[in-house]
Design a protein that fits this description.
Layout lengths: L2 H23 L8 H25 L5 H28 L4 H34 L3
Length: 132
């Protein structure tokens, strides 16, 4: 093995090691909530199972007497997960970006309502001027 190929191999090894170690070297996300992540994964799992069950039933792979109870069970699991997600979201601390978003939304809604009122005034004047 000559020196050039050995250097190339070492450079490739260093690049691969840095790529693999990148998640370990990055900063930890302070907003990461493992409970929320688990609930979101469970919600996705229930939805996927429900879609798969419905597709199998439509293809005739699952008989009616098995389909209905399994579907009801999956719907109940999904509802329980959604209730748990709502509780987790309510207790989460809002960040500054989340605080600003409702203010921007309220401003957009107010501007839309103002524009809708201006557009409604000419129509109301036209309707009032008509004779029946």
């Amino acid at each position: 093995m000559d020196v050039g190929s050995l250097l190339l191999f070492l450079a490739l090894l260093v690049v691969c090691a840095l790529y693999v170690a990148r998640p370990l070297l990055s900063e930890v996300d302070e907003d990461f909530n493992p409970e929320l992540a688990n609930l979101q994964a469970e919600h996705a799992r229930v939805l996927e199972a429900l879609l798969e069950l419905d597709a199998d039933w439509e293809l005739g792979k699952v008989p009616e007497d098995i389909y209905r109870p399994q579907r009801q069970q999956l719907l109940a699991e999904g509802a329980a997960v959604l209730r748990a997600l709502e509780k987790v979201d309510v207790h989460a601390k809002p960040s500054a970006a989340q605080d600003a978003a409702p203010d921007e939304l309220e401003a957009l809604i107010a501007a839309y309502r103002k524009q809708a009122k201006k557009a409604a005034k000419p129509r109301a004047a036209k309707k009032g001027g008509r004779k029946k």
